[in-house]
Amino acid sequence: MTMIHLALLSHMVSPSLVQLEEHVLEKLKEIEGLGGESLMLRHLGLVHMRTFYNAEAIVTGYVAGKGKNTGITGVLKCMIASGKTFSVETGLSDKQRRNPPKIGTIIVYCFQELALSGVPRFPSYISEAVDKTEPKDAEVPEHRKPGVKPAEK
Predict the structure, then answer these.
(1) pTM of the predicted model over 0.85
(2) Which intervals hold domain DNA ligase OB-like (predicted)?
């Protein structure tokens, strides 16, 4: 069994025991519906569990790197299916930064949530989507969409 310590809006919720993965996923969805963003699971250590979404975007440009990325690509400028633009700064290896996806390439990225403007927050590059001809936005559940008020306790 795994002990779950649920932290919601900076206060502790009573711990509960879980035996099935389905229970953990239900609790995560419940916490997210209340405005929380993650679960902390204690089992031989501490596991931080949160939902990530995958989506696709078209590479529209680059921004030169700074610091350790000087001389190579620092940021991929991208556009999602809805036409909104955003930047992907993480997830690229040094090799990929030296030879980034070509402009017009569709990439797969993951993110934690959408900003109020509808663009992904904290996007991270995963791979090129070589089998895609158009990008597809993530299917974000209603309770996780920007501007939706958390459910009442």
Answers:
(1) no
(2) 65-126
